[in-house]
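Supplementary Methods. Inverse-folding protocol.

Structures were first reduced to a discrete structure-token string of length 277. This string, shown here, constituted the complete conditioning input.
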């Protein structure tokens, strides 16, 4: 057997009683700021549990062991940028474009993870960190959390999907406000805009994340897989094509053991016991 992958910027831990895993960014001194290596390790850590049947949901979060301030991720690690002082000729523009291509690839791989992915946001979710939230399925946020795209204040812009994915959530005018002025927005404001799945009191945050991750970890895995794919890809095509996703998804889902168990439990008037098969 191959040895477990060793990570520097992240760690992944299983919560066996909940059938889920916690993937933590462990860069507290940098407010969990993101380098390409961080994103690569997140994608690899998710890949390592993709076919692990004991993991049926993943929680993505910043480390609990913060040293400065609580943060999911405060965005790109600007101190690690290797392009300072590089002349702006065409060859270097191509190199910069390729660097962005690599970052997009990691975000895409995270978004394509086939199991439910919860963004547990306690603290800052800014810039690239907010773009990381955008590729998750469920957003659980503490009331003390803050969201925003501050890139304009550094003369740059949210180019890891921020101008594209966020506008599909909030609409043009709200996103224009976010990216043009670089403001921080409270969790309450983002909740009012419909961006947050669950807004939680600070002192209830950890227990609530465990509750929801455990619920998904014990739910019908096959149905969740089909739901995620239908929403993720069906919403990118015309309605008649999206409905075909549902037709095919229904055919796949109804052959699963969990589907049989769910119907049987309903008829027997008992709670279902899904095995994720």
């Amino acid at each position: 057997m191959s040895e477990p992958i060793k990570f520097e910027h992240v760690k992944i831990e299983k919560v066996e009683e909940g059938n889920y895993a916690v993937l933590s960014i462990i860069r507290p001194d940098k407010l969990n700021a993101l380098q390409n290596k961080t994103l690569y390790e997140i994608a690899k850590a998710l890949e390592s549990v993709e076919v692990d049947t004991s993991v049926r949901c993943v929680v993505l979060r910043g480390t609990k062991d913060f040293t400065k301030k609580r943060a999911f991720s405060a965005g790109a690690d600007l101190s690690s940028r290797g392009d300072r002082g590089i002349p702006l000729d065409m060859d270097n523009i191509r190199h910069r474009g390729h660097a962005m291509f690599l970052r997009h690839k990691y975000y895409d791989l995270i978004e394509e993870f086939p199991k439910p992915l919860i963004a547990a946001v306690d603290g800052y979710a800014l810039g690239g960190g907010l773009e990381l939230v955008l590729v998750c399925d469920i957003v659980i946020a503490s009331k003390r959390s803050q969201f925003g795209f501050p890139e304009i204040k550094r003369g740059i812009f949210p180019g890891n999907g921020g101008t594209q994915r966020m506008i599909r959530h909030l609409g043009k005018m709200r996103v224009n406000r976010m990216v043009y002025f670089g403001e921080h927005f409270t969790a309450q404001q983002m909740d009012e805009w419909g961006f947050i799945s669950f807004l939680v009191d600070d002192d209830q945050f950890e227990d609530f994340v465990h509750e929801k991750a455990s619920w998904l970890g014990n739910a019908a895995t096959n149905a969740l897989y089909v739901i995620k794919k239908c929403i993720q890809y069906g919403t990118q095509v015309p309605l008649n094509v999206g409905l075909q996703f549902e037709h095919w998804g229904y055919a796949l889902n109804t052959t699963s053991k969990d589907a049989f168990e769910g119907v049987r439990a309903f008829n027997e008037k008992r709670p279902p016991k899904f095995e994720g098969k």
